From TrEMBL:
Coiled-coil positions: none
Lineage: Bacteria, Bacillati, Bacillota, Bacilli, Bacillales
Organism superkingdom: Bacteria
One MF term in the entry's GO annotations: [protein-PII] uridylyltransferase activity
Domain DUF294: 184-321
Name under which the protein is recorded: CBS domain-containing protein
Gene source species: Metabacillus litoralis
InterPro entries in the record: DUF294_put_nucleoTrafse_sb-bd, GlnD_Uridyltrans_N
Stored CDD domains: NT_GlnE_GlnD_like
Record domain Protein-PII uridylyltransferase N-terminal: where: 28-143
Amino acid sequence: MQDDFDSYHSLKKYKETYIHQYELDTQKLNEFHDQMMRSASKLALFHLEKEIGQPPCDYSWFVMGSGGRNEQGLISDQDHGIVYEEDSEHALNYFKKLGDELSKGLNEIGYPFCEGKVMSSNPLWCKSLTEWKKQLIKWMDDKSWESIRYLQIFYDSRSIVGENPLITDLKCTIFDYLNNNKELLQRFMDNIQHIKNSVGPLGQIYVEPIGQYEGCIDLKKTAFLPYVNAIRLLAIKEGLIETSTLRRINKLCEMNGCYNELSHYRDNFDKLLKYRSLLYSNAEAYDDVHYLNVKKLTKQEKREIKDILRDGKKLHQFVQRIIDKGCFQ
């Protein structure tokens, strides 16, 4: 795979030319996304070094969201941040400029700006190691829904350029806090437990009644997020560094016999990734990859989707029992 590009324009052309050959393989598709983002980072650093020199200290540029979990689709927006080692005004100014350049460069090669501004260009997501630790503790002390959401977003972080130990250090801050504040787990649970009803009492799948996606089901909200959120919470509880949902499930199954039933949910999530792959060929916009037209499914596929949707709620009930009992250490 080519990794030497002289401009964002040439990188964008390469991305558009080759990305579709990976659309049916989630692992290879995400490896391709990683390579595109690393190439964008090289270009951003090249531009910055000409202007103000090399980075003043070690740092990590990390991705979050589906990128952090290696679960990106064909079309993906931006979710990334920076943590740097040196707590100084010079480092702050340098990495703020790098964050701006990274966000601009990713947008130019086809990764749209994040509507929620979860990007390195936002000071909230670009800080020194010391300031990041303070922010994580502030979020954990805070009782707001937004703070818990930010913690969930950060927990899926994965270093893509630079020093991975910086990310591990930050996640250990969360683990250390949890040792003395178990109630934080219930706050996480409260944040994720509102799951949209997707299967009716007579077994009918609830679809979008009107609009652009009439007759479709939003797989992201009704299926992906229930699985991702539930497994993330178990990963936080058990102090797992893994970010991929499938790897988290595998690790949990290895840790404790009481988690063995998660293997069923792992199979469901793997099926979800395959269903989403089938949506790529017709996707023209970011949201298109999340909507599945129920009318185009076979009877077997409809049964499978119903089981996956119902099991999402069962998984949340399983996680709630664990949080209530506090039975796994």
